[in-house]
Amino acid sequence: MDNCVFCKIIDGSIPSNKVYEDDKMLAFHDIQPETPVHIVMIPKEHIASVDEVNAENSDVIAHIFSKAGEIAASVGLENGYRIVTNCGPDAGQTVFHIHFHLMGGKTLGKMV
Ligand code: 5GP
Ligand code: ZN
To answer: Would the pLDDT of 2 be above 90?
Structure first.
């Protein structure tokens, strides 16, 4: 997808600090971390947001969650973590390639 920053990270035209990669997904450190550990997990397929997830493409979302615990452990989040996804303007989504923030490294406090 042209002009998608995360597609450019996938194709390597924008560098990233990767922590996990396979044929379906990529996980890398957020450029502006909001917690001591702040990873972004994305599918390699361009899906704009949760609104665009459907029966045809949901396998890759399940795949991301099947790897999340392993990725969290690999970056030292043995005491817990939070996974967040923003969808649309009210949630403050800024990059319209679906992504899951994997956050931790401190006590996060209650959010919901
Ligand atoms: P959103 O606000 O859409 O939920 O999250 C987008 C996230 O992507 C933000 O936390 C932002 O810091 C991160 N981000 C945006 N551009 C880049 C980039 O070029 N590299 C990396 N590593 N993270 C980025
Ligand atoms: Zn994209």
So the answer is: no
Burial, 76: exposed, middle or buried (Cβ in 10 Å; 0-12, 13-18, 19+)? exposed
Q: Is residue 111 part of a domain?
A: no
Answer whether residue 112 is part of any domain.
Answer: no
Is 29 labeled as catalytic in the residue annotation?
A: no
Ligand 1 proximity of 16 Cβ (cutoff 6 Å): yes
Domain membership of residue 109 (yes or no) is no
User: pLDDT class for 99, splitting at 50, 70, 90?
Assistant: very high
Mutational pocket test of ligand 1: of 40, 84, 85, 102, the residue with most ligand atoms within 8 Å of the beta carbon: 40
Query: 96: Cβ below 6 Å to ligand 1?
Result: no
What's the number of domains the chain is made of?
1
Domain assignment present for 16: yes
Chain center to CA of 46? 13
Terminal C-alpha separation, the chain: 33
Q: What pLDDT digit, counting tens, does each position of 48-96 carry?
A: 999 999 999 999 999 999 999 999 999 999 999 999 999 999 999 999 9
pTM surpassing 0.90?
Answer: yes
- Here the tokens at position 79 are 């005491």
